[in-house]
Specification:
Elements: H1 2-20, H2 22-43, H3 48-51, H4 54-68, H5 82-97, H6 106-117, H7 126-129, H8 133-145, H9 147-158, H10 197-214, H11 221-240, H12 244-264, H13 266-290, H14 292-303, H15 308-326, H16 340-347, H17 362-395, H18 399-414, H19 426-434, H20 436-462
Helix pairs in contact: 1-2, 1-4, 2-4, 5-6, 5-17, 8-10, 9-11, 10-11, 10-12, 10-18, 12-13, 12-18, 13-14, 15-17, 17-18, 17-20, 18-20
Length: about 475
């Protein structure tokens, strides 16, 4: 009873703090994303499960403040448009499936709704979150700088044995620490400050897209150097995870970024490449010299495992095979969620209908949970979001904002068949990138208005000077 009272007090305190300033709270969520795994593994392992929801309680307080208790602020209007309609239709079907009788209890459906929909309201808050392009840049810069200490920790983890405390997962996890094992080494596949390997992969991929877009912002030489150093840690840690996903996603991203950017503005793209190529040359040389064991371990793992094509093919074709199991209905939102078993045990809920097949790819899980109709709605929404981000890119004029829109479209594309709903880290970044559809044009309007005001002030002040004498 005492623990329940203490837990309730802490939750209410977190909610109250986040309620006070929704902007501060929303920005804090991205800091919590980076450190919550460290808190769960090393600082407060006894509170590992409650800390999993820390960012969600902070975000919940931010939602309440913004949507219900900030009438004095001008809210960004939520209009009926292509993006919002796709989001509402997909969300409506998810809500409908949360009451699916196959779940055995609506509490399981609530867990599924949290995974699918909880981070969506953030996309309509982003236009009000930043008051200028510079403020957005400073936020992204400060957030991306965190990759330096996280990356240093990753290097230490790679050089430490698998049974070292620095390489442990969260307490109670039965899963053994992943290593490069069959690649000829017992070195660990690092997790950084994150709870699991999968969480770190999503973080690295999301940050990579932001790094590439940051290169378009006119930074000082000091911050340019820091950005390149942080980008190097991002890439080398991606190799240390031993996962092909962040590397393949980065290759797809860079190829698409260069091609689409060249079509839009070839001159600026060549200038941008002239800045990036020296970094690639220096960073690649440093990686081959100082981190040769990393490159060798990753290369051996990739070449000794030939299931990539099969996994990609299964990711696309698997969901259509599962439709024979679901007919026109699914098993309900949350039915394949990893936390469903724990929730049923803690609350004494009925078991619900058994899932006829065990599935790992997310597309297959969504096909089972939402059925064929929901699958079409959900992935149709994701296609619409990619199209609208590309449309935003082609309409914007300011280079930094334009590159952010392109980064969002390419990250969504490169990780299309990867985990998003069941990836509590990347899911936040997914909807953050999606919010660029609304935020970036709004920021460009603000910057254009400021430029006009400065120009008017310049001409007004110039009118006070007497005309030059005739000669």
């Amino acid at each position: 009873m005492a623990r329940l009272i203490i837990a309730s007090f802490i939750i209410l305190s977190i909610f109250y703090w986040s309620f006070q300033d929704w902007r501060r709270s929303l920005k804090a969520v991205f800091f919590i994303l980076v450190i919550d795994g460290a808190l769960r593994k090393w600082v407060f392992p006894q509170f590992s499960e409650p800390l999993y929801f820390l960012k969600d309680f902070v975000l919940l307080g931010s939602y309440f403040r913004y949507y219900f208790f900030s009438q004095s602020e001008r809210h960004y209007p939520i209009k009926i448009n292509f993006t919002n309609t796709a989001v509402w239709v997909a969300s409506g079907w998810c809500l409908f499936q949360s009451f699916n009788p196959y779940l055995g209890s609506p509490f399981v459906g609530m867990l599924g709704i949290k995974a699918y929909l909880f981070y969506i309201p953030m996309i309509w808050m982003l236009p009000n979150l930043f008051r200028s392009e510079e403020e957005l840049y400073i936020f992204l810069r400060n957030h991306l700088i965190l990759i330096i200490p996280v990356g240093i920790l990753g290097i230490i983890q790679f050089g430490s044995p698998a049974d070292s405390p620095i390489n442990q997962y969260i307490p109670g996890t039965q899963e053994p620490v992943a290593t490069f094992g069959f690649a000829g080494t017992t070195r660990v596949r690092i997790t950084g400050t994150f709870s699991y390997l999968n969480s770190y992969q999503g973080y690295l991929s999301a940050c990579f897209g932001l790094f590439i877009a940051m290169l378009s912002y006119p930074q000082t030489s000091r911050w340019v150097t820091i950005t390149y150093i942080a980008l190097f840690f991002n890439v080398i840690n991606a190799f240390m995870t031993g996962s092909r996903t962040p590397i393949i996603a980065a290759i797809i991203f860079l190829f698409g970024f260069v091609v689409i950017r060249t079509l839009k503005d070839p001159e600026r793209t060549f200038i941008w490449l002239s800045r990036l190529v020296p970094f690639v040359a220096v960073g690649g040389s440093a990686a081959l010299i100082a981190f040769r064991p990393v490159i060798d371990a990753f290369s051996t793992r990739v070449t000794s495992n030939s299931d990539l094509g099969e996994r990609v093919s299964l990711g696309f074709s698997g969901p259509f095979d599962f439709m024979a199991l679901t007919q026109f209905d699914g098993y309900g939102t949350g039915s394949t969620h990893a936390g469903t078993g724990t929730l049923r045990y803690l609350l004494g809920l009925p078991m619900g209908a058994p899932i006829p097949i065990e599935v790992e790819p997310e597309m297959g899980k969504i096909a089972l949970e939402l059925g064929p109709i929901g699958f079409i709605f959900w992935y149709g929404m994701r296609v619409v979001i990619i199209i609208m981000l590309l449309r935003t890119f082609f309409h914007l004029k300011r280079p930094f904002l334009r590159d952010l829109a392109l980064a969002g479209a390419l990250i969504h594309t490169a990780l299309f068949i990867g985990h998003m709903v069941f990836h509590h880290t990347f899911s936040v970044y997914y909807w953050f990138y999606t919010g660029f559809i609304f935020m970036l044009p709004w920021l460009e309007q603000i910057e254009n208005w400021r430029s006009e005001q400065q120009l008017m002030q310049y001409y007004d002040s110039a009118s006070y000077f007497p005309p030059p004498p005739d000669r």
